Amino acid sequence: NAGVTQTPKFRVLKTGQSMTLLCAQDMNHEYMYWYRQDPGMGLRLIHYSVGEGTTAKGEVPDGYNVSRLKKQNFLLGLESAAPSQTSVYFCASSYTTGESNEQFFGPGTRLTVL
Amino acid sequence: GQQLNQSPQSMFIQEGEDVSMNCTSSSIFNTWLWYKQDPGEGPVLLIALYKAGELTSNGRLTAQFGITRKDSFLNISASIPSDVGIYFCAGQLGNQGGKLIFGQGTELSVKP
């Protein structure tokens, strides 16, 4: 199993450009998450999904949109990139629901917005 | 919103030394998780704790779920160079779609 994969690994955008980050998991997990990681701030949740066709806002959703059309894929979109969105983006997925939750992370996408 | 305070922010130790780091919160959590992140990689789960007072080991790593449910610590014994990385605690509140709240991370450097 590949686990959680993310594409692309690196990307440079100009302010105002748009792009989509793709996350795929082959573990048949119900839940999927998008985080951003900035120095000294840990990981902050952008959006998440508890199942195919559903999405919800996390801690820092502004400027991002997501879609979960297939159970194994979770897309993160930036409609009009801003320099403040320069960050490392991580996707994660989990199977268990309820009280216990172990999230498995992808390798990350490093995004720079000029 | 909920916040986790993780300390220390960084540690520089000699190979063979023991390491201790902790997380505290103003909120009560149902689950505490400890992750390690190597440079250029995503976080990898080290230990998961599900009950208040629970003490769990994974090799040289030991973690505990605080009795008050508001804190957790991670100990690493006899550190080795491959322990270098950033360690994150994460807490989960019940019934919130599996969402985790992450600490700011502890960056560990081990000198051979």
Characterization of the model:
The complex is a heterodimer of chains A (114) and B (112). With 114 residues, chain A is an all-beta fold. Chain A contains no helices and eleven strands. In chain A, strand 7 and strand 8 (73-78) form a beta hairpin. Chain A is globular and about 40 Å long. The N and C termini of chain A lie far apart (36 Å). With 112 residues, chain B is mainly beta. Chain B has no helices and eleven strands. In chain B, strands 2, 4, 5, 9, 10 and 11 form a six-stranded mixed sheet that branches. In chain B, strands 1-3-8-7-6 form a five-stranded antiparallel sheet, with no helix packed on it. The model of chain B has no long low-confidence stretch (mean pLDDT 92). Classes of the chains: A mainly beta (114), B mainly beta (112). Chain A binds chain B through residues 4, 31, 33, 35, 40-45, 48, 50, 56, 58-59, 90, 92, 94, 96-108, and chain B through 1, 4, 6, 9, 30-31, 33, 35, 40-45, 48, 50, 88, 92, 94-95, 97-100, 102-105.
Task: Write down how many β-strands of chain A occur, each being a DSSP E stretch of 2 or more residues.
Answer: 11
Spans where pLDDT lies below 50 across 5 or more residues of chain B: none
Radius of gyration of chain B, CA atoms, in whole angstroms: 13 Å
SSE pattern of chain B: EEEEEEEEEEE
Average pLDDT over all residues of chain A: 92
Distance between the termini of chain B: 40 Å
The oligomeric state is heterodimer
Please report the total strand number of chain B as a whole number. 11
Mean pLDDT figure of chain B: 92
Enumerate the spans of chain A where pLDDT stays under 50 for 5 or more consecutive residues. none
Relative strand content of chain A? over 45%
Helix-strand category of chain B: mainly beta
- What is the overall shape of chain B? globular
Written as H for each helix and E for each strand, in order along the chain, the element string of chain A is: EEEEEEEEEEE
At a glance:
The complex is a heterodimer of chains A (114) and B (112). By secondary structure, chain A is mostly beta strands.
